[in-house]
Fold this protein.
Amino acid sequence: MQDGLKDQLEDLAICGGTPAFETPLHVGAPNIGDRDRLRERFDDIFDRRCLTNGGPYVQEFEERVAKIAGVPHCIATCNGTLALEIAIKALGLSGEVIVPSFTFVATAHALQWQEITPVFCDIDPDTFNIDPNRVAEMITPRTTGILGVHLWGRPCNTQMLVEVARERNLKLLYDASHAFGCTHRGRAIGSFGDAEVFSFHATKFINTIEGGAILTKNDELAEKARLMRNFGFVTYDNVTHVGTNGKMNELSAAMGLTSLDHMPHFIETNRANYWSYRKGLADIPGLSVISYDEREECNYQYVVVEVDEDEAGIDRDRIVQILAAERVLARRYFYPGCHRMEPYRSYFPHAGLLLPVTERQSGRIFSLPTGTAVGEEEIEKVCRIVATAVKHSDALGQRLDKRMIAGTTAGYRHRVA
Ligand code: T4K
């Protein structure tokens, strides 16, 4: 290990070697912008004593996000899940809504929370997004909408989905949590369907610590969502809609504005990291990094690797386990699919039968750390670990007990160094 890169089986931490990293590398380590500028904004907020309830920073954040998404309305919220819940309510969804299972569980929960049944639809094996050819088969008389997810920032087949929605008179909502700053056919994500929702959680490339937003072109829908975000208050003593407290606060908006100031830099860093991984993993049999359409704008927020176990000689879970021992906390986003999580697993025990692609693909993918917290040097090390694991897959297979794998990443979850 002369160059600090691991080549031999014994170099690997899982086989007794020293872990490659002293401090864990996380998927989702937040990007922090210019701290001085952020402190200035914080001071300004405290000087003005306007901390929340539609202050000037939230308004500025909404204007800038709306402009990037190319829509007239942005309603900033305290997180992406609340944004989904409000959008679902404001659109009047009820009964059943068709949604992919291969997503973060918040997508399904936002429906179930309002006692709307998420009807899980399979994904397209190439895009990993909801398969529009399967959507029509899932429609029943109780269906009121489709909730697509632009997974990892890669767009859904919006053309086909809008056709189905129009034909069957369904609302079309997108969970665009991963897709801020991305385009599809040259048009900004945020501008498709009846409405779209972003997440600005700390783990997203533009973050407001916690935060989200609803984007729409529909004036009436925007007005409703805005009221619902603030308990339904029209004026001080007049409530016209059932509402919740979904407001973004001023400190979060200041964080968001400071993030936006650095947006080109964050994207460029993600893009450079993405290509370093592509290069570093290119010659490893059985491994491929999911691609982004270079003709479009992408945020490259997720570096996702697909493992073909037959070719690699090692499965996804073992690779994740080997990386965890090196303190590289790769994540299996979004294994095992919502239909295998509660309460959905109990409600629909046989859902997997209709989700063969989800079942297969969710066992093959993992995400690697990116963002401003990692650079070329770390990526080279990570790639070499993976290459060594694949090279010695036979020997490793005999040493590693698969039963140990399930808890591997969970054990590191809260050890954010
Ligand atoms: N729809 C989709 C498709 C989504 O992906 C999400 C959120 C939502 C809806 C809902 O949006 P929000 O309501 O969250 O705005 C994380 C995020 O919490 C979640 O926002 C995100 N998706 C999801 C993909 O990832 P977990 O449970 O995996 O989080 P956790 O605590 O394991 O953190 C992820 C990693 O980030 C850790 O390895 C440590 C690192 N980290 C995290 C935080 C918060 C840091 O280094 N520093 C930090 O401050 O869900």
